[in-house]
Amino acid sequence: MSKPEVNLLFHQPIVDHSFSADRNTLAVTRDNTVELYQRNGSKFAPVTTFEGHDKTVTSVDIAPNSGKIVTCSQDRNAYVWEPQPDGTYKRTLVLLRINRAATFVRWSPDEKKLAVGSGARAIAICYFEDENDWWVSRHIKKPIRSTVLSVAWHPNSVVLAAGSTDSYARVFSSFIKGVDARPAPTVWGERIPFATECGIFTNNAGGWVHAVGFSPSGDALAYAAHDSSITVVYPQPGAPETPRAKITIVSTGLPFTTLLWTREDELVAAGHDCTPVVFRGNEAGWSTAYSVDDPKSKAGAGEEETSALHMFKRLDIRGNTDKDDSLLKTIHQNSITQIRPYDYAGDRVSKISSSGIDGRVVIFPLHA
Amino acid sequence: MANVELTNWREIDIDKFDPERQYPEELITPGNPLPQAAQLQAIQQHIEGTHRQLQQNLSRGQKVEALRFALETAPYGIDKSQPEVQETGYVYEDEVKAKKALEPSMKIKHLQAVLEILSSIRSTEMNDTLQQLYEGDNGVELVDTLLKYIYRGMGVRAPIKRRTEYAHKEWYKLSSEEQQAIERAEAVRDLEEGVVVNHSVLLSWHEKVVGVAGEGAIVRVMSDRRTV
């Protein structure tokens, strides 16, 4: 297995990152801006900065086919940045009509729609209106009771999952007449009009739902909640509240804040423990497989302590023999904010990229 | 227009003119598995029965059984021992019902029982007890509940200066908020009267629990609305 590729971009939190389809362009959030980096050998060099948001940018997503970049921010706005032939970007405003921060944005797989989660207890489903040359939105409001922290698209670009601070993970229909073709029936239901609730799930202990994700086939949903758990749900068509199977894996560590399915029977989650963890399983049960960047397997800062000289030096300088415990043994030195697929081997994700509050973007290879 | 500089922006209710404003009732989270008014009597009887059963288990030396039983039957919901939750005004519908009907001393009684069991287990037996609990049915949730009781035990108030112990002058120097706070603390202290807490035992239990269930247990206890 090759080594993880570590890119320390700056010493500020990165709350979201996104790679272009060819993986040569990297967009990361930085305060009120989004910075675009270009791969240059083994390094990433800054090329453009997108300015225009008044407040912290909360999410960024590059559409793999069109190359359009969408950003959203606490200033309640979202912009679509369209690449022009001369290398510049044309900015278009998305009319979100929300009165609280926008928290999360993702392109639908067919790239015709955008889903924006917000603190206004609503999800804005946005689509492009040719006549007026802007992005308009429709809202999914009820029965969301609190801020939407994340959204995830089903491969059919109609079914949408959302995780919220009211401790529920929900599945909705985002079908918009005139934009979407009628989708084939899925396990989440058939003939589902806009804003139909196709699933609603929570855990006993509750806790904010930080991340949601559909399996590659779209037939299973996983969510990560603040009770340090990952739950995988296999739905039963027509019965949104009684799934066929609902499996919760409880972690002994800190909560996960992001997750990614790597294939139908495997997913990766990461969060406040600063290391991605791989889970494997199926409808019969799920369990932890391994930690991608396991702090326990590393000697880390302990190595130098084997030398007596070092020990006495330290004793002399600092007055103690304690090793330097300000460094974590993991690569990420702070919470991981987002993980994304980086490379594929066949139908499975073979490399993931992660961004963290420590300003790093790391590319981790996964076990086969 | 109001003087811009004198306006405290944070205090402006920006939802005031929003026609689609959702009202708090709609924002109440349902589904918290708390006793409904109708079931309350049954629950109270059950708790009484529980304590008898606990005493039997304990007197026979079946400490793991006693602990498991106590944790499985933990009463949730709000009673008068948690005035801070009532004060916020942000209580959940179920809990309001429960609060009205649940005998205030029930949760305290249960807490007392759990603390008794915990201090009856020797420090050398702690790890075995925990392992048995953790690996048994529903182990993760039971250990989480145990941690809730450990924190609740640590939260038992120390004796306070009572209302009657204040000199007349001294009392009226206090603001009405301070007076209310003292009266509230006194009410809680009255309820908790007689709860014996051995903090060093609780601390070593805490260490063992975190050793077995990890930091995840702490996070779960913090995020869980089902308080003991």
The tally of strands of chain B reads: 0
Describe the sheet with the most strands of chain A.
Answer: 4 strands, antiparallel
Tell me the span between the first and last alpha carbons of chain B. 51 Å
Question: Sheet with the most strands of chain B?
Answer: none
As for the CATH topology of chain A, it is Methylamine Dehydrogenase, Chain H
Task: List the total number of helices of chain B.
Answer: 12
Helix content range of the residues of chain A, please? Answer: under 10%
Q: H/E order of the elements of chain B?
A: HHHHHHHHHHHH
**CATH architectural grouping of chain B:** Alpha Horseshoe
Looking at CATH, the homologous superfamily of chain B is Actin-related protein 2/3 complex subunit 5
Low-confidence blocks of residues of chain B: 31-35, 80-94, 97-101
Put simply, the count of helices of chain A is: 1
> According to CATH, what is the class of chain A?
Mainly Beta
The strand line-up of the biggest sheet of chain A is: 1-28-27-26
Query: Into which percentage range does the β-strand content of chain B fall?
Result: under 5%
Number of domains of chain B: 1
Average pLDDT of chain A works out at 92
The average pLDDT value of chain B, as a whole number, equals 76
Topology:
The complex is a heterodimer of chains A (368) and B (228).
Chain A: E1 5-8, E2 17-19, E3 25-30, E4 33-40, E5 43-50, E6 57-62, E7 69-73, E8 78-83, E9 89-94, E10 102-107, E11 113-118, E12 123-129, E13 134-140, E14 148-153, E15 159-164, E16 169-173, E17 197-201, E18 209-214, E19 221-225, E20 229-234, E21 245-250, E22 256-263, E23 266-271, E24 277-282, E25 285-291, H1 308-318, E26 336-345, E27 348-356, E28 360-365
Antiparallel strand pairs in A: 1-28, 2-3, 3-4, 4-5, 6-7, 7-8, 8-9, 10-11, 11-12, 12-13, 14-15, 15-16, 16-17, 18-19, 19-20, 20-21, 22-23, 23-24, 24-25, 26-27, 27-28
Chain B: H1 24-27, H2 40-59, H3 63-72, H4 83-88, H5 93-101, H6 104-120, H7 126-135, H8 139-154, H9 168-173, H10 176-192, H11 199-213, H12 215-223
